[in-house]
Write a structure and sequence with these properties.
Length: 172
């Protein structure tokens, strides 16, 4: 039978590997899901390479929310407004300087060029540090990678603590 320290050290190593793998995959998921990054203007065209569901995110300075009252709509070439809904379970990605939050979900029926309209933009505000970002939905995958991070951290921490206690003679 293997020594208990070997088992707990192995659990810590596996937990660390799962933690690292999950973090790398989570960051790749967030970066690979981006379809378009646009400046904040009242109206502009955006190209969707394929049909499907897309999520509009607002990226703005962390402690400033100039786009909190903005209203977004997307129209096809014929001027018909696309079906959309507010993001009920908003995903947020924050750094030290900026935060990105999902605000609206759009259903794009056909690939092609669409016109994005932003109403109720603040007058006289500098929006150069803000952006509008379209992504593919990633909610379920995001939750699974977060679960992997939690399990990996638990294995790393638990295996390390148990190994230390076994080496110190506090556990038998």
């Amino acid at each position: 039978m293997p020594h208990p320290v070997a088992l707990t050290a192995g659990a810590a190593a596996l937990g660390g590997a799962l933690l690292l793998f999950s973090i790398v995959r989570l960051l790749a998921l967030l970066n690979d899901s981006v379809v378009a990054t646009l400046p904040v203007v009242a109206g502009q065209d955006v190209e969707f390479p394929q049909a499907g569901d897309f999520v509009l995110h607002v990226e703005q300075p962390r402690l400033d929310t100039p786009l909190d009252r903005a209203v977004f709509s997307l129209r096809d070439a014929a001027g018909h407004e696309l079906a959309s809904s507010p993001s009920l379970f908003r995903t947020t990605r924050s750094g030290l300087v900026v935060a990105r939050i999902s605000v609206r979900n759009f259903k794009v029926e056909r690939p092609g060029r669409y016109h994005l309209t932003v109403d109720h933009l603040p007058v006289g505000r500098d929006l150069s540090r803000c952006a509008l970002i379209f992504t593919r939905p990633f909610g379920l995958a995001l939750m699974l990678w977060i679960l992997g991070i939690l399990l990996g951290a638990g294995g790393l921490l638990g295996g390390t603590i148990l190994s230390i206690l076994l080496i110190a003679g506090k556990l038998r």
